[in-house]
UniProtKB/TrEMBL annotation:
Xref: InterPro entries: Acyl_CoA_acyltransferase, Bact_Acetyltransf, GNAT_dom
Origin species: Deinococcus terrestris
Positions of the N-acetyltransferase domain: 1-100
Pfam families: Acetyltransf_1 (PF00583)
UniProt keyword list: Acyltransferase, Transferase
Protein known as: GNAT family N-acetyltransferase
GO MF term (any one): acyltransferase activity, transferring groups other than amino-acyl groups
Keyword Cell membrane annotated: no
Source taxon at top rank: Bacteria
SUPFAM superfamilies in UniProt: Acyl-CoA N-acyltransferases (Nat) (SSF55729)
PROSITE patterns noted in UniProt: GNAT
UniProt-listed PANTHER family: ACETYLTRANSFERASE, AMINOALKYLPHOSPHONATE N-ACETYLTRANSFERASE-RELATED-RELATED
Length: 100
């Protein structure tokens, strides 16, 4: 399942983020059968540094929480790392993860 979130300005999309819910199956450490992956985070260069990516990623996190998803992951660039760390994600191998 994919859930997308957009920010618009003047009738055009200026930022977006998505949450993919993956049926993972329960594990010994986590009985929740779903995992979430935040994808497609993007902000138009003219609209960066205004908190849009933070707001949209937070929407993804809230929807995941409402559905009981406790494990989120995402890929990042160096430019996005500080934002995700501020939102509670930690580096794990080649991606970042957040657990409730």
């Amino acid at each position: 399942m994919y859930l997308g979130f957009l920010a618009e300005h003047g009738g055009r999309v200026v930022a977006g983020a998505g949450l993919t819910l993956l049926e993972w199956g329960p594990t010994r450490g986590d009985p929740q059968p779903w995992r979430g992956r935040i994808v497609n985070v993007w902000t138009d260069p003219d609209f960066r540094r205004r908190g849009l990516a933070r707001e949209l990623v937070t929407c993804c996190m809230e929807v995941a929480r409402e559905r009981g998803v406790t494990h989120l992951s995402l890929g990042t660039t160096e430019a996005g790392r500080a934002l995700y760390e501020a939102l509670g994600f930690r580096t794990s191998g080649t991606e970042m993860v957040r657990r409730e």
